[in-house]
Amino acid sequence: MPRRTDLESVLVVGSGPIVIGQACEFDYSGTQACKVLRREGFRVVLVNSNPATIMTDPEFADATYVEPLTPESVLRVLERERPDALLPTLGGQTALNVSVALAEAGELDRLGVRLIGAGTEAIRRAEDRRLFVRTMREAGLPLPRSGFAHTVAEALAVAQGLGYPVIVRPSFVLGGGGSGLARDPEELARVARDGLATSPVGEVLVEESVAGWKEFELEVMRDGRDNAVVVCSIENVDPMGVHTGDSVTVAPALTLTDREYQEMRDAALACIRAVGVETGGSNVQFAVNPQDGRMVLIEMNPRVSRSSALASKATGFPIAKIAAMLAVGYTLDEIPNDITGETLAAFEPALDYVAVKVPRWPFEKFPDADPSLTTRMKSVGEVMAIGRTFAEALGKAYRALERDFDLGPPEPWVEGTGEGGAGAGGPGDLLAALRTPTEGRLLLVERALAAGHTVEGVAEVSGIDPWFVEQVARVAQQAARLRGARLESLTAEDLREAKRAGLSDRRIARLVGATEREVRAARRRLGVRPVFKTVDTCAGEFAARTPYHYSTYEEESEVRPGGRPRVVILGAGPNRIGQGIEFDYACVHAAFALKEAGFETVMVNSNPETVSTDYDTSDRLYFEPVTVEDVLAVCEAEGPVGVVVQLGGQTPLAMAAELEAEGVAVLGTRPADLDAAEDRERFGRLLRELGLAAAPHGVAASLPEARAVGARVGYPLLVRPSYVLGGRAMEIVYTEEELERFLASAAGASPGRPVFLDRFLEGAVEVDVDALADGREVFVGAVMEHIEEAGVHSGDSSCVIPPPTLADDLLDAVEGIVVRLARALRVRGLLNVQLAVRDDLPYVLEANPRASRTVPFVAKATGVPLAKAAARVMAGATLAELREEGLLPPEPVYRRLRHVAVKAAVLPFGRFPGVDTVLGPEMRSTGEVMGIAHDLGVALAKAQEAAGTALPEVGTVFVSVANRDKRQVVLPVRRLAELGFRVLATRGTAAVLRRAGVAVQVVPKVSEGHPNVTDLIATGQVDVVINTPFGREPRTDGYFIRTAAARAGVPCITTVPGLLAAVQGIEARRAGFPPPAPLQEYYRAAGELAGTGPGWPARGAEYDAGAVRP
Amino acid sequence: MSQALLVLEDGSAFRGRSFGALGEAFGEAVFNTAMCGYQEVLTDPSYLRQVVVMTAPHQGNYGVNGEDGESDRVQVAGFVVREASRRASSWRATGTLQEYLAEAGVVGLEGVDTRAVTLRLRTRGTMRAGLSTVDLDPGSLLERVRAQPGMAGADLAAVASCSQPYEAREVVGAARPVDGRRFRVAAYDFGIKRNILRLLARNGCEATVVPAWTPPREVLEGDFDGVFLSNGPGDPAATTYGVEAARGLLGKLPLFGICLGHQLLGLALGARTYKLRFGHRGTNQPVRDAESGRVEVTSHNHGFAVDPRSFGAGGGVGDPGPGELAGIRPGPGAPPEEPPVVETEFGRVVLTHWNLNDGTLEGLRCLDVPAFSVQYHPEASPGPHDARHLFARFRRLMEANR
Ligand SMILES: Nc1ncnc2c1ncn2[C@@H]1O[C@H](COP(=O)(O)OP(=O)(O)O)[C@@H](O)[C@H]1O
Ligand SMILES: Nc1ncnc2c1ncn2[C@@H]1O[C@H](COP(=O)(O)OP(=O)(O)O)[C@@H](O)[C@H]1O
Ligand SMILES: [Mg+2]
Ligand SMILES: [Mg+2]
Residue B174: CB partners within 8 Å, gap ≥ 6? Predict the structure, then answer.
């Protein structure tokens, strides 16, 4: 069936900000969809609130709406654009939910918009757990026994019938939110209450627990002719009970016989047909009882998912792209397989390697969170690694993770490092510890095996299949063989066996008491080097056209010599808090720009969710850990003219010096200069030399020294240890006592591990600057003004372009500082500078000579492709040349935009009950959104709506603020009262508000007994909480208030500027939003204003053509 | 653990560790891309005299069991894998892969770069090969490899066949009547897989398995409702008795052929067969039924194929030149949308099934006599079940013919 001719325009719905359970895999899928739909000649309209995505680049759609992904907001876009169809299956759960809401409200019918891919019926049958159960029963497919409940009492009754333990799973929720295991009625009451509250329809499924069974996923595709294929099977190393998103997984499935596998395949195909997904990809999850093989279906997602991204990268089969083509009418046997070029998409990939995924958790940022892995997903990112064996791939994944897991279990075991979990002290405790899955459990497995426990024993307590335990045992054997040996005495065979078992050079070094460099040298001397194989979808049956490689210790390498000069771009590795999709965005831009400039681009990255690891983003893709060991191997194979280290965040930047020492040319700013900015002491000296203002600061290597610095620079102090145990890197301390306590508790301070102490600038406005320099000239992308004061990490605060309250001469001063820093650091490429402005004086907080988190936001807000320009500068172009080409505007535009763009952060507190939600200097957000409009109020309101932090327009607000903030909240709270809010407050705050004429009702504090404010919050009687912290005492009233709000999902504002912005947002929303406009329209207006015509932003259009294969 | 050596006809040598039996094995080296189902592969008689290289690196993970064998012994000449599991992890396992091969006296090789071997076979075609744990000198092993006969012209079905007729029920249990009816089927054993018998039984067919050389006359006298032509090893053109059987039965009893059975039917209809460069072996091959337009993902194991251009007058696809034979590659999507109909001695034949990867003819159906065949394996085992319905088609054909 060829392409549908009844459609001309398609609306693609993205997935919004990165949150736990929904990460950048949907940028990857949405970008693929946009590319292919445009190539097919459709007018593509895109909605997505996440500015850090490639898909929201103006080149990828005809009209790009950076707007909130709420039904109302998407409806406004539909009203304006009137597309023929809406594609809901490529933007995760968010897109699916929004689309269903619009369909069910009758809006799609009213506007004549058709859902393509999956219809509402099919989506409901898959997403509504009740309908799903019925559909599966009718199709004769096996499920765990279960019943539905709408109240806790009903849940208890169902469980009575099933027998404990049971699993509670709410309908219409992603990432296992609100789900949980209950072993007895008491636990069930709690879990069910949570689940009912989480489900948007107040319904939960209470199900027979199959925790401990083996878990599998199949990625299925179906076309309009009912052809269906299984693209990939994925086996979870962790058993049922650990969310797939939190499980170590492997593709293909490794422990199923063909009989069982085919039974599962049959069930998966029957499932997609019964659910009625007409075209596209779906994900079907299964559990298998390891004792007798009983198989049950767990769930199906009628859309591309995180697992589809993984499956695409693991097989080379581009699920999202093909899903988009199927949605517009093609059949699988009409779509070519890009990888081979000669076969078709109608087949099932065969793998001749093993792909292992390991999640990355944010526990280091949430030391108070429960570190156990459950049915609720907690990870924020993942790595994938490819090897010829499971052990090799696992070892590579550990390297890629940047958690030092590649060093193996700590030697000797250190208690409380987070790896072992509770009680991982003696050998007897090891098995006990293995019962509770935690982040480092496979290390614990290795440790237990090394301690003499049997494979069976370990498998039994951990629920991990003995086959996988055996693989870890082989790693342990290799380690044991090397432990204590002398490097010089190792033979080529010894090293080769160790490398084939996945041991990193670093681990070998540690085992034999050498350095990583020495191990590398020994390997090279003995000729033990990795070769590179190709991911070809067909296990070698056909020749692959796409150079998509992975390293392995084998005999034959498949890297073909290149023609043009090659540039290696180092990616950012796994998503984590502080280093997310923004850096992938920059790397992808570099690939596009350098390809266009005539280079052959070589991408190295390990994150399967990204656009950078798409096989057609760069000329060559190395799916490899971003570590010195692996990057050097790629450089040896490719012989590049240089390596780009400044776009992938801290990961590649940190290895610049080592790469250079190994003779690899680092493009752009030189490693020595990078170090001058990164090293806080050197940077402090530089600022002094330049005469630039900085907060008074000092370094201390002991407690007395710290006290002395404190006395000299004055309190409050911002303390950052250079080494931290278990998170909590930065703290603000207000007194010497607090300083002592902090240093005693976590940070220590010793000659090898100094602490840096800065005077904390209270009440300062923070600004961020992203600039580009070519060694002579500097181009300022934008100065961003933060909404929250300095002290809230720039990643967590909201910020605005153009700066709403900063005078031009101040902006000039800031720009001047940036120019001087860029010159002093001899920046060639990007530079991000953070400053705090107090009393009109800008203080430099830090300078990062690399792409920053805000680069995509600046690019989206201003239309200037900063990252592309940076890549070109690194490869030798000057700013003047880029202006000439039209890649850069004649001069900075950020001040003169006619629109306002607001970035807001999205925080994961809902996932970590009990964690304090106060914002501080430690970044904790997972993602960001942008609101764009012609005035600040609307832009703020949209950003809040998109971030899910918008305040209700009426309701009850509870206020309790620190003394220093009381004065400033009077006006905004009075405004809320005028707008009709009922105001509750604790005694002190109430007194101040009353004096200002606000009608307030006093509510008891937690310390004043029950019922108090937390009870009101828990029972839904409060709609907004305003609470600013006072001091850093643990377990204060404020802590209880904030965590209660997080638990109940009530918006909680913890800063005064945040409150002011929120009130502005409410007012804007009340006044009604103007119709939305696409970025392209904003840019056109801005371009005209800049006097360049619509020229400069439109230039990007060519990249699209370059990125898409004909 | 002792060393083992694999040498290919072109002189390439791969050193690894031995697992399974010690000794030597010679045969045609082929690769299989299935990601599970090694026990079925090992016991499939079509692999007779072949050294099978598995492209999936981990083999043996779930061990072996008493149910998954496709015949009562290991059939491959040698087995080459990247890594053989020492542990059998499955509730059905009764032993490990290593023990299984050792007991069967079959030489296994592990630890070699199986992808490198595969790429060599893909680019140079299947080759004669030798596998040894005794002779670790590549030069001397190569000499003996080159002294081996090739697969072209090899008549192996007679070797794989049973020597006496037997009732399928003895192996797979009694046939389950469908709509209250049972059919009597003579199943020619050129190396028949057990799951074929199972699926025949499940479709109401009481099969009597007869030796490959059984004259058609005996079958015609035997009160059968239909005839099944099985898969099997070797060169179809050398399996002359099979072609004779097919010719003798065409038009007299409904016929269903699989793999070698399909090639024999093709030869009986006047077509020619040719050797593919490296064959199709795996469980992921897309085949389009040009009559329905549907694509099935299917299990394959063949090194020869029927040339669609070699049918008699009216074939309309033209005469193949010798060089073109192996290279028939209309390209993806190129297999005809409309199934071509060719004229033969037995009337019109529709060329129904086409491999989407390389355009190989994969199935045919006679219009004027009751017969059809497919090149691939609808019985799967290992592989997807997409094409199982063909057994019901056979049943319906017999029903219509009664
Ligand atoms: N009946 C069950 N028994 C034990 N664990 C379960 C059961 N159902 C689900 N789980 C676990 O919960 C996780 C999340 O459930 P799932 O329905 O897949 O939610 P999500 O929509 O978040 O993916 C699964 O990955 C699995 O580990
Ligand atoms: N001297 C200071 N006074 C006030 N706030 C500060 C000071 N130094 C840092 N901060 C705050 O801490 C945050 C994090 O500090 P920064 O040096 O930028 O660390 P990171 O490397 O994590 O970005 C900043 O965004 C700012 O809000
Ligand atoms: Mg799931
Ligand atoms: Mg910072």
Answer: B201, B206
- In 3D space, the residue among B81, B204, B260, B26 whose CA is nearest the CA of residue A389 turns out to be B81
Q: Which residue has the tokens 């798409």?
A: A614
Of the listed ranges A86-100, A802-816, A970-984, A1027-1041, the one predicted with least confidence: A1027-1041
Using alpha carbons only, how large is chain A's radius of gyration in Å?
Answer: 28
DSSP string, A76-95: HHHHHH--SEEE-SSSHHHH
The average pLDDT across A325-347 equals 93
A532: helix, coil or strand? strand
Lowest mean pLDDT, pick from A523-532, A1040-1049, B138-147 = A1040-1049
Angle at A1091 between CA A1085 and CA A1092, to 5 degrees: 85
Going by C-alpha positions, the residue among A1040, A1022, A904, A1010 that lies closest to residue A959 is A1022
With 0.90 as the threshold, say if the pTM is over it: yes
Q: Is B129 helix (H, G, I), strand (E, B) or coil?
A: strand
Burial of B338 by CB count in 10 Å (0-12 exposed, 13-18 middle, 19+ buried)? exposed
- State how far the Cα of B205 lies from the Cα of B221, in Å rounded to an integer: 18
CB A296 less than 6 A from any atom of ligand 1: no
Q: Among A548, A553, A507, which residue's Cα sits nearest to residue A409?
A: A507
Amino acid present at A246: D
Give the number of residues written for chain A: 1110
Known catalytic residues of B are 259, 377, 379
B331 close contact with A: CB closer than 8 A: yes
Mutate to test the pocket of ligand 1, among A246, A299, A373, A377 (most ligand atoms within 8 A of CB): A299
Interface test with A, best of B33, B283, B337, B376 (most A CBs within 10 A): B33
pLDDT in tens, B297-341: 999 999 999 999 898 643 344 444 333 433 334 444 456 778 899
**Residues A885-899: tens digit of each pLDDT:** 999 999 999 998 999
Residue with tokens 């009337």: B347
Q: Can you give the pLDDT at residue B323? A: 32
How many residues are present in chain B? Answer: 402
- Average pLDDT for chain A: 91
Angle between the A25-39 and A92-104 helix axes, to the nearest 10 degrees? Answer: 60
In Å, how far from its chain's centre is CA A809?
A: 37
How far apart, in whole angstroms, are the C-alpha atoms of residue A423 and residue A410? 15
Residue the block writes with tokens 């300078």: A847
A68 contacts A942 by C-beta, under 8 angstroms: yes
For A146-150, A956-960, A1083-1087, B40-44, which range has the lowest pLDDT when averaged over its residues?
A: A1083-1087
Closest residue on chain A to B40 (Cα) = A258
Spatial neighbors of B69 by CB under 8 A, at least 6 apart, are B39, B40, B43, B194
Radius of gyration of chain B (CA): 21
pLDDT at A1035: 63
By CB neighbour count within 10 A (0-12 exposed, 13-18 middle, 19+ buried), where does B322 fall?
Answer: exposed
pLDDT for res A1011: 86
| Cis check: omega of the bond before A412, within 30 degrees of 0 | yes
Are B37 and A258 inside 8 Å of each other by CB? Answer: yes
A924's tokens: 């904790």
For A595-654, the pLDDT digits (tens) are 999 999 999 999 999 999 999 999 999 999 999 999 999 999 999 999 999 999 999 999
Please tell me whether residue A220 adopts helix, strand or coil conformation. Answer: strand
ipTM over 0.90? The verdict is: yes
**A384 CA → ligand 3 middle, Å:** 18
CB A281 within 8 A of CB A272: no
Quote the percentage of chain B above a pLDDT of 90.
91
Which residues 15-44 of B are in CB contact (within 8 Å) with A? Answer: 31, 33-37, 39-40
Q: Are A897 and A862 in contact (CB under 8 A)?
A: yes
